[in-house]
Amino acid sequence: MELYAGQYRYLLCIYRMEREKKRLRCVDIANDLGVTRPSVSKMMKCMVRMELIEPDYCEAVKLTPDGRKIAEHFNADYDNTYAFFRRILKMSPAESKENAFLFLSTFPMETVKKLGSVTTRSLEHARMKSHPVEKKKIENAVK
User: Fold this and answer.
1) If phi over 0 gives left and psi between -120 and 50 gives alpha, with beta otherwise, what is residue 51?
2) Does residue 95 sit within a domain?
3) What is the CATH number of the domain that holds 33?
4) What integer pLDDT is reported at residue 8 of this predicted model?
């Protein structure tokens, strides 16, 4: 499913907040994203049409099973992409978040996966350089 940057933001916000809160409300989403409640309401209507959230979002916002599956998939991609901008390019948290959403909503999924793979390898390499004892353990285990 193709999502725009704003839809990514909302979907991941709902996914992450739903795990933390017993009852997620539109005002919680508005506060987290720094948008108005009417903006949230408009996006919720769109997400209901896309079958990402349950139709009765006025009581509590809940992902549909399909919405949850998509959000779980995007969450892993977001984490890798955010790590690239934050830890490798050394951008601020806000810049990293914005660029991660923009990247995910603009680039083909194949490119997203390649970036995730490169990021994982780069961070693992950096971790090994900073922890030579662990590196030695892994080298000995491979032998």
Assistant:
1) left
2) yes
3) 1.10.10.10
4) 85
Q: CA–CA separation, 5 vs 21, rounded Å?
A: 24
In a domain, 143, yes or no: no
- CA-CA distances (angstroms) from residue 37 to 5, 131, 137? 18, 47, 53
pTM for this predicted structure:
0.72
Tally of structural domains, the chain: 1
pLDDT tens per residue across span 81-115: 999 999 999 999 999 988 998 898 888 889 999 99
Q: Is residue 102 part of a domain?
A: yes
C-alpha distances in angstroms, 22 versus 27, 28, 48, 120, 138?
A: 14, 12, 20, 33, 42
The DSSP element (H or E) to which 28 belongs, if any, is helix 26-33
- Domain with 96, as residue range(s), is 5-132
What 3-state class would DSSP assign to 63? strand
- Over residues 60-88, the mean pLDDT reads 93
Answer yes or no: is 137 within a domain.
no
Given this model, what pLDDT does residue 136 score? Answer: 56
